[in-house]
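quick q for whoever's on today - can somebody do inverse folding on this one?? i tried earlier but teh output was garbage lol. tokens:
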């Protein structure tokens, strides 16, 4: 039985900051952010959006009356969780009006958690062929104003339906994994922003890519030239380019040029949004599917997933007939084109206006946010999630 990605949804906030202007404000050459980091714009997330509401806004695009009642499992990958006990998946299940007789669970392993969700969903569908699984990756990437990580912030959510006979991509067996206990990036319970050893994390990312790709090739006898494209987790788009360049000597010049060309398509959306953490690899996949003019059904796409701490996985997917009509590319383009630019002062004010980690009641700036699902604030220590009637 073929199992894989049947539908893909994406959401990010309607505000962004221009990276050339941010570079100037930080006394850096614009080239450092635009070329050296590889980012043109960065999504700025208002205090009326969190991991739950962004997930709901992404999932809302791929759930309708035909598939709503077939979803029997929700797997919510995030490292921006809103509670140490109650799963973000339960809030989501309620907001999306999914059935009650289903399983809903949150998964955590830094940016790797959505991939874990996809692979668990695949096994669930293999055991229950009628099932459809909703898999989420939703995060806000925050390092702090004036920090080295600031140009690699961002935020948003990816949502997928994993099912039998998928319309977009099948997920092939096997995968290659590599896990090691390293301190490249983490967020202690007392912190709202990540602690990161940026240079070390970038080296480890490439090492994990090399290890998982090598193991995958040894397990499957796959040659690089069997892959039409490789898509990467993109904490910043130059990171994926560095990893790709590290293996190009293993293929011929014509294929190396093809992989570089397809990579450029895969980084278009991330360049405009920044790091989504769990969802980043899948925004890069969506960008390739929407923007590349070279894709055909039957072609294979390699995926490299990396989550700090750290876990890496390399696996391969196969494009399905008619995938072009199933991806909904125009919606994504409109979402990105219709955003509003913030000045650096406005961005800093929005960044600093997040709901504090406190028991006090709080009201968010819902009047400026037109998204269908939003966080109205906190009352009596309970998060107040709302669905706008549109
Ligand atoms: P930095 O130290 O300020 O930057 O921070 P830099 O000095 O290394 O410069 C960056 C690049 O710009 C360099 O290129 C410069 O040469 C170039 P490279 O040597 O890397 O090829 N440059 C210029 N290029 C053109 N014109 C110019 C110019 N000036 C300089 N004028 C760093 C960079 C990425 C370290 C920082 O932003 C950071 O710490 N980011 C956060 C950590 C991160 O994203 N790590 C990635 C791997 S870990 C990961 O992917 C997991 C993660 O998503 C979390 C999770 O799993 O949950 C982060």
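ok took a stab at it. sequence:
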């Amino acid at each position: 039985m073929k199992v894989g990605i049947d539908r893909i949804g994406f959401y990010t906030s309607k505000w962004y900051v221009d990276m050339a202007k941010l570079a100037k404000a930080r006394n850096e050459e614009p080239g450092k952010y635009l070329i050296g980091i590889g980012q043109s714009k960065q999504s700025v997330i208002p205090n009326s959006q969190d991991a739950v509401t962004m997930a709901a806004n992404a999932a809302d695009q791929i759930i309708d009356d035909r598939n709503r009642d077939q979803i029997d499992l929700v797997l919510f990958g995030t490292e921006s969780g809103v509670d140490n006990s109650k799963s973000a998946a339960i809030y989501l299940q309620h907001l999306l009006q999914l059935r009650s007789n289903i399983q809903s669970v949150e998964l955590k392993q830094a940016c790797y958690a959505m991939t874990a969700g996809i692979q668990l969903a695949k096994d669930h569908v293999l055991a229950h062929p009628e099932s459809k699984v909703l898999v989420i990756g939703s995060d806000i990437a925050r390092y702090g104003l004036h920090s080295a990580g600031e140009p690699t912030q961002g935020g948003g959510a990816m949502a997928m339906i994993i099912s039998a006979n998928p319309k977009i991509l099948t997920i092939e067996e096997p995968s290659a994994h590599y896990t090691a206990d390293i301190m490249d990036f983490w967020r202690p319970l007392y912190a709202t922003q990540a602690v990161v050893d940026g240079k070390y994390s970038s080296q480890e990312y490439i090492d994990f890519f090399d290890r998982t790709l090598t193991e995958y090739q040894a397990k499957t006898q796959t040659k690089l030239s069997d892959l039409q494209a490789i898509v990467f987790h993109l904490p910043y788009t130059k990171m994926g380019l560095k990893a790709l360049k590290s293996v190009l000597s293993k293929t011929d010049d014509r294929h190396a040029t093809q992989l570089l060309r397809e990579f450029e398509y895969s980084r278009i959306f991330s360049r405009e949004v920044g790091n989504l953490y769990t969802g980043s690899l899948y925004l890069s996949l969506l960008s390739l599917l929407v923007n590349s003019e070279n894709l055909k059904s039957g072609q294979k796409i390699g995926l490299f997933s990396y989550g700090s701490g750290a876990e890496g996985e390399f696996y391969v997917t196969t494009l399905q007939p008619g995938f072009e009509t199933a991806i909904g590319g125009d919606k994504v383009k409109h979402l990105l084109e219709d955003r509003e630019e913030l000045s650096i002062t406005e961005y800093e004010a929005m960044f600093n206006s997040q709901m504090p980690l406190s028991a006090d009641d709080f009201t968010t700036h819902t009047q400026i946010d037109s998204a269908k699902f939003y966080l109205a604030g906190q009352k009596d220590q309970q998060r107040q999630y709302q669905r706008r009637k549109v």
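fwiw The first strand starts at residue 3 and ends at 11. also The mean pLDDT is 97. so keep that in mind when u check it
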